[in-house]
Design brief:
The structure holds 3 protein chains of 3 kinds. By secondary structure, chain A is of the alpha+beta class. Chain A has 16 helices and 34 strands. Chain A has 3 domains: 162 residues, Aldehyde Oxidoreductase, domain 4 (2-Layer Sandwich), CATH 3.30.365.10; 180 residues, Aldehyde Oxidoreductase, domain 3; 332 residues, Aldehyde Oxidoreductase, domain 4 (2-Layer Sandwich). In chain A, α4 packs across α5 and α14 packs across α15. Chain B is globular and about 65 Å long. Chain B is 34% helix and 25% strand. By secondary structure, chain C is α+β, with helices and mostly antiparallel strands. In chain C, β3 and β4 form a beta hairpin. Classes of the chains: A alpha+beta, B alpha+beta, C alpha+beta. Chains A and C meet through α1 and α14 of A and α2, α3, α4 and α5 of C.
């Protein structure tokens, strides 16, 4: 088993609140870190996937004879070869492991191949003959509910008709708008990849890049017809995730091929395949009406939200819940009617992506707030401050905020932070960049602030837990957790937590594997620092107590008299001083399952205490817009965020900058272009993510530290908020510069040049 | 010296002289000429292109580097874009250097070559509008013969050229003009982006002509001849007064009128035409500003 | 040497590539045949820079280089930028400033930054941004990477002023 080990002099290793370096930083910087695409095995075969070129079709037949005959091919498997349950899914098992009679989206897997060499795999895939009856895809989410079902589970994945407060409220001032968010791709850099290794007893080891080992394990086991313990899932190095690795991709395929051939099988998606191989951020169509009194007090919000879930459910049910619950933003809204629906189409499946439903509605509710400010003749920042949630307020769901909610602080610090943005002169700094399209005189500057929030951790009564164990031996703490490190820095924070609680320097975090420990839950929903961090904190705390009790008994002193600090156990009354390494020559161990405070399902009106806690953030964007060409340069982003407590300042900054970059991308360039169910830009040539010349510096105005009750060290999850309000802020700044409505992101050049919609 | 290897029935020849390169190409079926490889390898990696015999030409001395002879530049076909945008060429053919700086990424520019950009014949090739405006002439060579073809005759359509089996591009000849030059390119990212529309405007005091080349708005290299004819006589070539706004606006309309773009996933024809008009006006204004200042 | 064998000089050592296949990229040869997994495979179309290596002093996307076309050239991969177990100052700065998150882009960025600072010892921020504009990073938003470059430049300047 491999682990991460850092040795330092006792008491000097960074603890909570310090900028500890990543323990995996050295291997990652030297290239020796093993990502899932780097896995090797002496006897390994390569796997590949045949995918449907059609978004909707019936499969009349699949002929594999020629493919099987290709030299070097060891297996060609179809739907009938799936040994167990033929469907999988994160929340609803509705997605075929391999399409049988029907394909419901472009790129849906139909057949899998294992061969000696990737070239043989390609040749075999080309040799498979599929006879399709091509059908007209159902692609319009607005009308899909009136259309014939494309799946036995129906075209409606979930509807939430939220009604909050009196439904008769009408405001003095009303503003109305329709908004649209396009499909965004997580665009992690490390492609889907993994390796399955069959064992003699019929069990399988699967090494894969994922966000949630045990959920994968359970789904794989069901599909393989194996008991869960017969599938051991070990985390392979993850090259970014952002939600896209919460669903299965090649997992079952690898296991099928490995079991069938009796050989280890490795698979690595190409970038094009990756665009078809994971879920995306839901495209959203949103209608809003805000009601306010003349003084700017929000009295009612109405909204209709349609999220296009694509062909399979994935986590759409939870995404639409988030979109609905947080539809009005972090404001006090006594009356609301939000009608949210996630629907099924023959478009690419959508699911989790950083921000998870709150990104889409944030774009809309913040546009509405700006519109309302204009209608009221009020400063948009003042309007937000006036309506900002405070602890004790109720959300749209009727849930009372019992934790921290420093919304006004977040707004104020962000708005008041001085800007460092200079007037651009170098063409590289102007819209158009290296293309030299603009001179300074062609550019209009705009500025705006946006506010966002979302829940931390899983909601609606989900039994959300994380298990961890701590073993202290010879002064070294070994931690076992199945928390997936996907780049966010759990590996760093866990060391800091252990050092803080146990006063040790040396911490070993074992490779996450389902074989060693129970579920840590998903690395998503900004939850792992709280959940797995909490589990580790508690396990270490129990070890500490056990150790002191043992020592107290051995030495005949009172436990309360003993103090563990900096690698020493000393008695307050004096006389006893034991080195921790000596005191733990016999190991001390503890294992805990950590749970957050319980939540409850939403009722038929979308009411209920469905969420645990919330994180708030504000972004102020400054943009330069070339209005004639419709090109945008984001000049500066300033942010304030409600973080509870900073555990590692350097990693917090990294999350805030990185999340904002994904928000900038969605605001000005990122869109999976889908026409008639087909992705037209499944490549990094045409799916554009921000480069270093597109991403501005991020100024951190304030990290608001108000310890969150129930959270380890009071720290809130920080990963998602940066991706929520950043998009809205950039879009608003472009509106500010141009005076246009711009109801859609990404804002394309044509949206600025031909704002009436001509293209 | 020929440094040839064969595998899977396919040979790779690294030519180190022009003669050897031509000899290696003079077989049936004709091998593929590989220079930087940045276009070809995308297709090969994707599996959408089967690899045949290959002759690698970017070590051929005659194809590497550039030289000036009077008011003519002879650029070897294997000159890289990094060499173009980081050398004296920046002042000799400024528009070409400006275009070179927009090609792909730094890593791409370090290997991608001028000859490769031409031979790929993509409508979005960043050097194409500049070379069109420069009336570039290509020197083609095969084992049997040499010939010269203008760039505009060489590229006959989308990814179509008149290159014959056994032929390679040896060099590109362009004039050193007396006058300011501008290249502009619209893409939806500030770096590393494929052109949605691009344009080169060159002033030539010697011939008292403005020439305009357009990119990404036609299947083959395109000049805005009507616009050139219109604007050239309006310019006071001896310095001083510049054409009025209306004349510039008309010029921009004529340039846009020459464009023949398509709708695709990168943009719409309407936007491309619009962008060309805006770029024409801006680039001309920059050129005129510098003409009048000198 | 058999017909389908050639050699590449990687990190100062000649390496035989045997049983090569037509059209193999330098990236695939480095990763699959020679065991240099530090160069990463995120797009294989020259758009992400994760596979950046240095050939004869210049950065290239190894995915877009036909492996055989660089025989005889000096190829430096991420595995060759520091001695043995040591770290280059660029690598150290990446770790110290938080420029590493998931790490998939890191080797390519280390190569690009190293090459930049070899030719321009004290680039301004815009020059740094242009120099790394061919290296996509999806985790960091580039802020810590810019900081890492800045720290490296400062470190070299201090070293220079001391010596």
């Amino acid at each position: 088993m491999t682990g991460t080990r850092v040795a330092r002099r006792t008491g000097t290793a960074p603890r909570i609140g310090e900028s500890a370096r990543r323990p995996d930083g050295v291997p990652k910087a030297t290239g020796s870190f093993s990502f899932s695409s780097d896995l090797r095995h002496d006897r390994m075969l390569w796997g590949g996937t045949l995918r449907s070129p059609h978004p909707s079709a019936r499969i009349r037949s699949v002929q594999i004879g020629e493919a099987v005959a290709v030299t070097g091919v060891h297996a060609v498997l179809l739907s009938d070869d799936v040994p167990g349950q033929k469907v999988f899914g994160l929340e609803h098992r509705d997605q075929p492991v391999l399409a049988g009679d029907v394909v419901r989206y472009e790129g849906e897997p139909i057949a899998i191949v294992a061969a000696d060499h990737p070239e043989a795999v390609r040749t075999a895939l080309r040799a498979i003959v599929v006879d399709y009856e091509v059908l007209t895809p159902v692609v319009d989410p607005m009308t899909v509910e009136e259309t014939e079902s494309i799946h036995p589970d129906g075209n409606l994945i979930r509807r939430i008709h939220l009604r909050h407060g009196s439904q008769d409220v009408v405001g003095d001032v009303q503003v109305e708008g329709t908004y649209e968010v396009a499909m965004q791709d997580q665009a992690f850099l490390g492609p889907e990849s993994g390796m399955a290794v069959p064992a003699d007893d019929g069990s399988i080891d699967l090494y894969v890049a994922t966000q949630w080992l045990h959920s994968d394990r359970d789904q794989v086991a069901d599909c393989m017809g194996l008991d869960p313990e017969k599938v051991r899932l070990t985390l392979a190095g993850v090259g970014g995730a952002f939600g896209a690795r919460e669903d299965l991709s090649l997992h079952v395929h690898l296991c099928m091929l490995a079991q069938h051939t009796g050989r280890p099988v490795k698979m690595v998606y190409s970038r094009e395949e990756s665009f078809h191989g994971h879920v995306h951020r839901h495209p959203a169509q949103m209608w809003y009406r805000h009601h306010a009194d003349r003084d700017g007090t929000l009295v009612r919000v109405e909204a209709r939200l349609i999220l296009d879930g694509g062909a399979y459910a994935s986590s759409s049910s939870a995404v639409i819940a988030n979109a609905t619950c947080f539809a009005a933003g972090p404001y006090r809204v006594p009356s609301a009617e939000i009608n949210g629906a996630a629907v099924r189409t023959n478009n690419p499946p959508c699911g989790a992506m950083r921000g998870f439903g709150a990104v889409q509605t944030c774009f809309a509710h913040e546009a509405q707030m700006d519109r309302l400010a204009k209608a009221l003749g009020m400063d948009p920042v003042e309007l937000r401050l006036h309506n900002a949630l405070v602890p004790g307020d109720k959300l749209l769901t009727g849930q009372t905020i019992t934790g921290t909610a420093p919304v006004a602080e977040v707004i104020r610090t962000c708005a008041e932070h001085p800007s460092a943005a200079a007037i651009a002169t170098d063409p590289l700094e102007l819209p158009g960049g290296t293309g030299r399209t603009a001179d300074p005189g062609h550019v209009v500057r705009g500025e705006a602030l946006a506010l966002g929030f979302k829940n931390l951790m899983f909601s609606e009564g989900f039994d959300d837990s994380s298990e961890a164990s701590c073993r202290l031996l010879d002064g070294v703490a070994t931690i076992t957790s199945a928390c997936a490190e996907v780049g966010q820095g759990f590996v760093t924070v866990v060391q800091q937590i252990v050092r803080e609680v146990l006063g040790v320097d040396e911490v070993v975090l074992l490779q996450a594997s389902t074989a060693d420990v129970g579920s840590a839950g998903s690395t998503s929903a900004s939850r792992q620092t709280w959940m797995s961090g909490g589990a580790v904190q508690e396990a270490c705390g129990q070890v500490r107590v056990q150790l002191l009790e043992r020592l107290a008994t051995q030495c005949g002193v009172d436990t309360d008299d003993l103090v563990l600090a900096d690698g020493q156990i000393v008695s307050l009354s004096g006389g006893l001083e034991v080195d921790l390494a000596v005191a733990t020559e016999e190991p001390v161990e503890a294992s805990v399952v950590f749970r957050h405070a319980p939540t409850w399902p939403l009722d038929e009106h979308g009411q209920g205490s469905a969420h645990v806690a919330f994180a708030f953030s504000a972004h102020r964007a400054i943009v330069d817009v070339d209005t004639e060409l419709g090109l945008v340069k984001v000049v500066e982003l300033t942010t304030s965020q409600d973080v509870g407590r900073v555990l590692n300042p350097m990693q917090v900054v990294g999350q805030l900058e990185g999340g904002a970059a994904q928000g900038v991308g969605l605001a000005v360039m990122e869109e999976v272009l889908v026409t008639d169910g087909r992705i037209r830009n499944a490549s990094f040539t045409d799916y554009l993510v921000p480069t270093a010349l597109d991403m501005p510096p991020v100024e951190i105005a304030a990290l608001i530290e108000q310890a969150e009750p129930g959270a380890p060290f009071g720290a809130k999850g920080i990963g998602e908020a940066p991706a929520i309000s950043s998009t809205a802020a950039v879009a608003a700044a472009i509106r500010n510069a141009t005076g246009l409505n711009l109801p859609r992101v990404p804002v394309r050049p044509v949206d600025i040049v031909f704002p009436e919609g001509a293209t | 010296m020929l440094n040839g290897r064969q595998h899977g029935g396919v040979s790779v020849t690294i030519a180190t002289s022009l003669e050897d390169a031509c000899a290696a190409l003079a077989v049936e079926p004709c091998p593929l000429v590989l220079s930087g490889g940045t276009d070809l390898m995308v297709e090969v990696n994707r599996g959408s292109r089967r690899v045949g015999d290959i002759v690698v030409v970017n070590r051929v001395p005659e194809l590497v580097g550039w030289r000036r002879k009077g008011d003519q530049l002879r650029l070897g076909a294997a000159v890289t874009f990094a060499e173009i945008c980081g050398s004296e060429l920046e002042s000799l053919v400024p528009a070409l250097a400006q275009a070179a700086r927009t090609v792909g990424s730094p890593q791409i520019r370090n290997v991608a070559t001028l000859g490769g950009n031409i031979a790929t014949a993509s409508p979005a090739g960043d050097s194409i509008p500049v070379l069109a405006a420069l009336d570039a002439v290509l020197e083609l060579r095969s084992a049997e013969a040499t010939r010269e073809v203008s760039l505009r005759d060489f590229i006959t359509g989308v990814k179509q050229t008149c290159l014959l089996p056994g032929e390679l591009i040896e060099a590109v000849r362009v004039p050193v003009l007396d006058g300011p030059q501008e290249f502009c390119k619209v893409g939806t990212r500030n770096a590393m982006v494929i052109s949605v529309a691009s344009l080169a405007i060159l002033a030539n005091r010697g011939s008292r002509r403005i020439t305009v080349g357009l990119g990404s708005v036609s299947p083959a290299p395109l000049r805005a001849s009507d616009a050139e004819d219109h604007i050239s006589p309006h310019i006071n070539w001896d310095g001083g007064a510049i054409p009025d706004e209306a004349t510039i606006a008309h010029f921009a309309r004529l340039v846009a009128g020459a464009a023949n773009p398509i709708d695709d996933h990168r943009s719409s024809a309407l936007y491309r035409t619009h962008a060309i008009r805006v770029l024409a006006r801006r680039a001309l204004s920059r050129v005129l500003g510098r003409l009048s200042a000198t | 040497m058999s017909a389908d064998t050639y050699s590449l000089k990687v990190n100062g050592t000649d390496r035989q590539v045997t049983e090569s296949l037509p059209g193999e990229s330098l990236l695939r040869v480095l990763r699959e045949r020679l065991g240099f997994h530090g160069s990463k495979n995120a797009c294989e179309e020259g758009e992400c820079g994760s596979c950046t290596v240095v050939v004869n002093g210049q950065t290239v996307c190894s995915c877009l280089v036909l492996a055989e076309s660089v025989t005889g050239y000096e190829i430096t991969t991420i595995e060759g930028v520091a001695d043995d177990d040591g770290l280059s100052d660029v690598q150290q700065a990446f770790i110290d400033t938080g420029a590493v998150q998931c790490g998939f882009c890191t080797p390519g960025l280390v190569m690009s930054v190293g090459a930049l600072l070899d030719s321009v010892p004290d680039p301004d921020e815009l020059a740094v941004r242009e120099a790394i504009s061919g290296n996509l990073c999806r985790c960091t938003g580039y802020g810590r990477i810019i900081e890492a470059v800045s720290q490296t430049v400062d470190g070299r300047r201090d070293d220079g002023s001391r010596s």
